[in-house]
Please model this.
Amino acid sequence: MNWRSLFSAWYAQDTIRITPRFTLTLGFRDEFSTGWNEAHGRAANYFFTNGVINSTPHVGDSLFQNNNAKFLPQPRIGVAWSPFSPKTVIRAGFGMYNDLQDALGYRADQNFPFNPTYSLATTVSKLPIDPSSPVVPAGAKLVPGGVDPNMKTPTLISYSLRIQRELSPTLRSPSVTSVRMATTK
Model:
């Protein structure tokens, strides 16, 4: 299989010192992908009709019905504030990140009609295997593979809160508190 995909991104950021003790950082990143495409029109994936998987795969240029990774906005914001003295800083941040799906070949390579996978309810008991026997033994069931044809790119939402205190001019303390949360959208 000759899978093709173009991944790209851009990022812009501005840091604004609102007061000598308060700094705001704003950022915006966008990632995008051309999807998951096969160079010779052999992208086979099982689509759904009325919520039921089709019995034969759709074969075409793209693995997906819709490319949901054309625009993946990822805003970021950060603040640094010294409310009491320059030796204590409270830092907070928020950001969204996408996990572009760049390793789908394993799931996409195993679909009928090009590289089918079969399941057998019994084990092979005749060794050595007879080369004149059928390639697909009787009773073998085709195992549909692939990925959701309308898959959305997983999104990670991350935030942090830290309090930093200078212990001496040459020694700084590590972050006291750090919170992180991950979720998919």
Helices lie at 105-108. The chain has a mean pLDDT of 84. The radius of gyration is 26 Å. The CA atoms of residues 22 and 81 lie 5 Å apart.
